[in-house]
Amino acid sequence: VKGSQKCELNCRAIGYRFYVRQAETVIDGTPCDPNGTAICVAGQCKSIGCDDYLGSDKVIDKCGICGGDNTACKVVSGVFKHTLTNLGYHKIVEIPEGATKINITEMSKSNNYLALRSRSGRSIINGNWAIDRPGRYEGGGTMFTYRRPNEISSTAGESFLADGPTNEVLDVYMIHQQPNPGIHYEYIIPGDNVISPQLLAHRRPGEPLNGQLGMPESPSHEDEDLHRETDILTGQSAGTFPVIQPGRFPSHQPENQVPAMQPPRQNREHNWKQVGKTECTTTCGKGSQYPIFHCVNRVTHEEVPEGYCDSSTKPIPEEEACNLFPCPAFWDIGEWSECSKTCGLGMQHRQILCRQIYANRTLTVQQYRCQHLEKPDTTSTCQLKICSEWQIRTEWTSCSVPCGVGQRTRDVKCVSNLGDIVDDEECNMKLRPNDIENCDMGPCAKSWFLTEWSDRCSAECGDGIRTRSVVCMTNHVSSLPLEGCGNNRPSETTPCNNGPCAGKVEWFAGGWTQCSTECGSGTQQREVICVRKTEGNFDVLDPYECSYLEKPPIQQSCYLKPCGSKWFHTEWSTCSKSCEGGFRVREVRCLSDDMAASTQCDSQLKPEEKEPCNTQDCVPEIDENCKDKYYNCNVVVQARLCVYTYYKTACCASCTRVANRQSGFLGRR
């Protein structure tokens, strides 16, 4: 339901999606959410702080202090990244006594294992080369949660988690079997002047704690009456004080509080007597129990209210061992490993250990102790899904050639067990049917194929030749090697003659000159003249005689060798001032032969990018229409009257000079 309806009594019928409001408000004290700490009061959801005040916003900080500012403790964290070479146990980090919020996590999944051992040498998790199954293990005065993700898709590594505090020094090890992926460790240790949680747990009611007197944790009826009477004497209502929880102490006692009345002195007619023991915490494997003391009449031994006995003389129950005989051994079944195959029938394994519980510790024992039990299987078949398979979707196509050797194809797809076409990687590539193969359509008939003779003779006059193309081909569009047509290859040339060359007019070109540049791109020239060819001689004619013929080029580009990088620059810009010295600029770049930017130019030969210009003095232009009409126009300027149209016209020259000076001054600023 919505936030505004959390304190309404809404009920939903089993098996239906609708709900009905039975009442506008629930009973005061009903939790607003299943996992929250807020409660409903008068139909409104109210939060409760860690100080047990309604509406308080105080929370427990990371140091475990209500309303703390995280400064009473110290966070110790790091990453163990050392490269290890030897197989076996390697110490990673030491967890000191009093540590809380312990988190030891492998940074990624590996074949290594984490192990935990006390400083006294007692193994807690994964000791003596025996790998424990994930679960909760007691050690160092706290409970450790051992996690080992086993999902195929998971990449998370192992971890130890514990709330603490520890009551002894613990050592964390790694059983090294493959390269270390990194181990992140973090825990919190108390700072200076911090109340030890262990001291709180073992403190007796009313015992001083660091100079402070704690409130009794379970006051008797007489004490409750005494507190009630004290509240009446101080004029305050008992309902206005919060209940002080264990571990939360008042900073000082109010000065105006009236001393509490002393309880009446107990007589010596009654004493404390052990009347039995508590139930043993375990049925086997060494549990614990405590004696039970009641107040009885010294003579009749009848039980009387505890108020008749002196509470200060009541014996403190001491722990006693019970049910010392070991528990029956049992098979500890580990989790199944990942399936050996992602699809189809595979195998998976699990670890089976014979274990026995004694003194709240689970020990690995010899397997013969579990012989009275049937041993579970250590291996099992598994199948995550049915493998996809190859399917031939079409028949072979026709051969790609009508004769000779060609190819034919067919459609092959990878299909899942649901009938969907999936990526080829989902199927076994080694079993993929061929989707292309060669096909032989038999020998092809072959012939020589010829083009027509060229229309133009190779010589303008005299003897020359004409050409044609000859190719050996099959009787269809595909070409084949020449060997198939035999040795009687037709000729590709034939002679031709356009008549005698005497008296023929033509252009005659001389040799090219040297390249105009020693490197880079340049030009070459040659001389071209019009001549008439006679028997053994040439007569030079006017170019007009050869005008009907295409004249050969008289210039061509040339390139001897690369020049390397050179400086290029643009034209100079316009001068910034027309007189009294300005400057002009241009852009200079170093470019390679292919006109790309380069850094190989000689910096000493770099052209200037800026130079002065128009250094001559400025000659003011005299405007015949702008003159001073009065001799004392300087007074007009001093009085700043040039802003008015009359004075601006009567003293035009003076006002103009002042305006030019002001504009020049502003420009320099």
From TrEMBL:
Cross-referenced PROSITE patterns: PLAC, TSP1
Gene Ontology biological process: extracellular matrix organization; proteolysis
Highest taxon of the lineage: Eukaryota
Cross-referenced SMART domains: TSP1
UniProt keyword annotations, A-Z: Disulfide bond, Extracellular matrix, Repeat, Secreted, Signal
Stored Pfam families: ADAMTS_CR_3 (PF19236), ADAMTS_spacer1 (PF05986), PLAC (PF08686), TSP1_ADAMTS (PF19030)
Span of domain PLAC: 622-659
UniProt region (Disordered), positions on chain: 248-271
Subcellular location: Secreted, Extracellular space, Extracellular matrix
Record carries keyword Protein transport: no
Gene Ontology molecular function: metalloendopeptidase activity
GO (cellular component) term, any one: extracellular matrix
Protein name: THSD4 protein
Encoding gene per record: Thsd4
